[in-house]
Amino acid sequence: MTVAPAADRLARHALRLDVEEFLYAEAALLDAWRLDDWFALFTADARYEVPSTDLPSGEPATALMLISDTHAMIAARVKRLNSRKAHREFPWSRTRRIIGNVRILAESGEEAEATANFAVYRSRRDVSVYMGQYRYRLVRDGDTFKIRFRRAELDLETLDSHGTLSIIL
User: Could you say which DSSP state residue 159 is in?
Assistant: First the structure.
C-alpha cells in the first residue's frame, strides 16, 4: 500500500468532510419534509434511481426500477408529495435518516463520486426501516454541491412488510 502525499490526503479529507456535511444537510431537509428545498439541490440534468430489491445492481435500460426519474420527474414527484393528492403521505410520515460510512470513490474537476450507507426510519402507524447504500455524483456549486446523480440501493429482500414506497429515500 502506498501513502499519498500529505497535501493530497488533506485535500481528500476536506472533500470528504464537505460531502458529509452536504449529505447530512440533505437528510435534514428530507426529514423536515422541505421537499422544494431538497429538489433545489439537483442539477438540471439530474437522475434519481432506486433499483428493485431483487436486483440492486440493475440499470434502468435492462432492469425494473422502483424509481428512475429525470429532473422533470423528480419535480413532479415533489409536487405530488407536497399536495393532498398523495394520500399515502397525508399526513406526512415521520422519518429519520442516519447517514454513515461516507466514502469518496473518485474526483474529477468539479465532480465527485461518493457513497454512503443509510438507514431511513419511517413512522406511519408502525415503524419501518429502509437501509442500504446511496451512490452520488456531486458537482461543486460555490461552497456546496448540486446532485447530478442519486441512487438508493436497498438492502431489503422485499418491500412486503413495508407497504408502499411513497417516501423519498
Answer: S
Segments making up each domain of the chain, as ranges: 6-162
C-alpha 84/C-alpha 28 separation (Å) is: 22
Note down pLDDT in tens along the chain; length 169 residues. 666 678 888 888 899 999 999 999 999 999 999 999 999 999 999 999 999 877 677 787 777 888 899 999 999 989 988 887 665 666 678 889 999 999 999 999 899 999 999 999 988 778 888 899 999 999 999 999 999 999 999 987 766 655 556 566 6
Q: Where are the alpha helices (DSSP H) in the chain?
A: 6-31, 35-39, 71-82
Q: What is the pTM of this model?
A: 0.88
What single letter denotes the amino acid at residue 94?
R
Domain at 6-162: CATH architecture = Roll (3.10)
